[in-house]
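Supplementary Methods S3. Input chains for the assembly prediction are listed below.
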Amino acid sequence: AQTVTQSQPEMSVQEAETVTLSCTYDTSESDYYLFWYKQPPSRQMILVIRQEAYKQQNATENRFSVNFQKAAKSFSLKISDSQLGDAAMYFCAYRSNDMRFGAGTRLTVKP
Amino acid sequence: EAQVTQNPRYLITVTGKKLTVTCSQNMNHEYMSWYRQDPGLGLRQIYYSMNVEVTDKGDVPEGYKVSRKEKRNFPLILESPSPNQTSLYFCASSLLGYNEQFFGPGTRLTVL
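Predicted structure tokens for the full assembly:
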């Protein structure tokens, strides 16, 4: 079965700095999607960024970008110019026939 | 507005008292799913449905039931809740395929 591992339970970053959240996954499939979701204190799950496994180019969305290493099964999220509003729980997720989530990384942003 | 709605948002109940959490989406999505979120475990899938009258078990289906009689609705039923089902529950929907899922606001359930 597919598994998703986030090895950093907590991370902190200074406002305006850059932080990278790690995610690895295990799968034998070749076709799948990867996602990063943000969960602020409101508990709402918000899609941050998505990556199709067949695409070699790393996805970017404004200050958010990913480093997708398919062979290494690694999918890290980089947040540039961190803002106070980025403070949240971040979940990495894998989807093929079903969807799997990592345990999450709690990001704190220090002013 | 495209959205997934869940009711109730908060629920405190006692062991053994049957309850239903409703989920509805207005995006004409084929796929719907229920998750529970527990600290340190992320979100784990309970049940999912790919279409009307088609449901399947996720990773943690024990103690839960679902039904999909209409495309827009996917209720979660706890026939005899127990304290270990105290959790935060999310409903989600998406198009078929590997698309991102859209999540409801969550239901905080406490079973005493």
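The CA atoms of residues 36 and 84 of chain A lie 18 Å apart. Chain A touches chain B through 24 residues (CB under 8 Å).
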